[in-house]
Amino acid sequence: MRTSSSRPRAIRSLGDLAAAFVRPVRTTPARAVGTPAVVVPRTAQVLMGGAVVRQTDPTTCGSTALLMLAASGDPVLARWLEDGTLPDGLTIAELPPEIPPAALARPLTAGERIAAAQLRIKERTSVRALGPWRWPSRFGTPPWTAAREARFPGVRYRHRPVDDRGEAGRTMVTLVLNALRSGHPVLLFTGGNVGNGLVKALPRHVVLAVPGRSASVTAAGDAVIPIFDPAAGRVYEVVAGDLLDRTTPLPALGGWTHVQWLALPVPAA
After folding, report:
1. Bridge partners, residue 43, by sequence
2. N or C terminus of the chain with fewer C-beta within 10 Å?
3. Number of domains observed in the structure of the chain
């Protein structure tokens, strides 16, 4: 394996749009939110090691979201994704679970590292998904194993179905904003309208809401949520209220209309 004795470099936040996402993942400790910054919602490509961080096939959106969630709290994983190196003396047993040991056998490009980690995560979320049975690969990642495998310092994750309409929708947005303000990413499972058929009304895609370095609001005072979409490999700034009572698709939700399930952080203890 490639190693380096230098300390892991600080890597910018997925939510730090001004940094243009050259290094998108936050590896510094969570800190209190300061004075909100007034912004016009923007979008930017997410890069690691010069490669766009994008799902490798239609079933790895959840794997890619989980990869970015883990890397935002693990500087060892983030550095391996960025440049392929690991700290000196790190054993196989100490590898971040998202890194497949076989990926250390030869030098990989950044795109190959991102793809290898996605497949590793998909394997982990597929096992023991339905009691002792595997989750069907063609259906991607279920919320309950995503919550089981989600990894961020100081917290674990719990999944819950949500309704984005009315008072329930406002509660959903509050839960997401509270998590982001405490410095913790949130997994959002998205889908379509019941009127378009039951299959489309089930969770069909996974995106990641990410904390910025400071709170952001629009000129009208509305909270802004940065959302990473693995299908596009982009982070979109979304006005929080735009997640409520939707009737049309939203690019930040992977082109789907509704948030239908969350994986939220809770204290690890």
Report:
1. 236
2. C
3. 1
Retrieve residue 27's tokens.
Answer: 């590896």
Residue with tokens 């998202």: 98
Q: Which residues does residue 39 pair with via DSSP β-bridges, in sequence order? A: none
Close Cβ partners of 221 (under 8 Å, ≥ 6 residues apart): none
| Helical (H) or strand (E) element with 190 | strand 186-191
Instruction: Determine the 3-state secondary structure of 218 from DSSP.
Output: coil
Return d(Cα 117, Cα 145) in angstroms, integer: 16
Confidence (pTM) = 0.84
Rounded to 10 degrees, the C-alpha dihedral 57/12/107/92 comes to -90
Q: What is the CATH number of the domain that holds 193?
A: 3.90.70
Place of tokens 């948030």: 259
Phi, psi of 226 (to 5 degrees): -75, 130
Q: What is the pLDDT of residues 114-136, one digit of tens each?
A: 999 999 999 999 999 888 998 88
Q: How many residues would you count in the chain?
A: 269
Q: What confidence tens digit (pLDDT) does each residue in 170-208 have?
A: 999 999 999 999 999 999 999 976 545 444 456 789 999
Q: Distance (Å, rounded) from C-alpha 78 to C-alpha 67?
A: 9
CA separation for the pair 16, 128 (Å, rounded) = 36
Return phi, psi of residue 2, to 5°. -80, 130
> Which amino acid is present at 258?
H
The count of other CB atoms within 10 Å of the CB of residue 217 is 15
Amino acid identity for residue 116 in this structure: A
Residue 236 near residue 252 (C-beta atoms within 8 A): yes
Task: Provide the CB-side half-sphere exposure for 38 (13 A, CA).
Answer: 3
Q: Which of 229, 231, 203, 207 is nearest to 58 (CA)?
A: 231
